[in-house]
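Subject: Sanity check before I submit

Could someone independently write out the structure tokens for this chain? I want to compare against mine line by line before I put it in a report. The sequence has 354 residues.
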Amino acid sequence: MSSITARPDCLASVVHCSGAIMKKSIFILCAMLLLGGVYFGSSQKPPDSAGAATEAVADSTCRSCHKSESTQFGKTNHAHIQSAGKAALSCESCHGPGKAHVDAEQDAHGDDAKTALANKLIFSFRGTARENSDRCQSCHVTGKLQQGFNHSEHAAQGVSCNTCHAAHLVRENKDPSKGELPTAQAQFFQIISGPDEMRWLRNSLLKSPQPQLCYTCHGTVQAQFSLPVHHRVPEGSMKCTDCHNTHGTPNAFNLVRTVSETCTQCHVEKHGPFVYEHPAGKIEGCVTCHNPHGSVNRMMLVRREGRELCLQCHAGFRGQAAVPHGRLSFQTSGECVRCHVAIHGSNFDVNFLR
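---
Independent answer below. Compare away.
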């Protein structure tokens, strides 16, 4: 077979063509980068024709129509945040650019149809729960209490920040014929309470006081607090956020701590650590035996008789099928805690006898 040898003049032609193509490609690339720089630069500084649409609107302009909201906002901590000696937050900080909305309102001249269209030109927190919450979390994202909200049960159920909080508290007109039914427990104790506005400013800008605000969704819990034995939440001695972090936590039931740690914030005598721990308290916590919201049983137990409560777990004794100390598979008389007095834990006896 004869070998094929490239001619030198052909090689030179190929190299010359490749160099020309490379130079042309470099020229095109530089031109694209130059044009790209001009394009991206124009987006940072819009032309004069669009300048009016992005012009900042003074808060005084908003106040001319929204006087009540502006007055209430001026009382909050939001209005007193400063940067470089000036107010850091304005109406547009939360509601977005308002120039188009203002111009449309002025052109409407009171026409209802045009006014309704003008209201759509500004963010008024009537979007989805995620859109509403994102506005607030543009600032409230680094706080320990709020940082887990996007992964919380409330967020998953479509609850947004403005469902519970109000940046400017303005009451809607309500039908007085419907009235409100206060809980009976609230009349048992005299709890000092100031005007609703003072409560709003001092309590995280909540629209309503706890627990009434939580009851709007958690009706089952409200019914449990109406049972004879309950924590004094309806009376005002406690509030829901003493135990729960409504913005979400890794703990069960959105508790501020684990189940047992949450309860022992107040019930310190049950905290331990003990040499001999009650296994039920270490695994599922206090809710194994107690219903924290309320119960018809003493000590808020989940069963009426204490021995029946114990028999839910202690169904055998030393390998026997029968109930401990029992006859015919049932304890004859008395309560377990009559002997096992240190039922929450003991430092002296493995059977919690002392």
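---
OP: Matches mine. For the report I'm noting this point. The longest helix spans residues 8-44.
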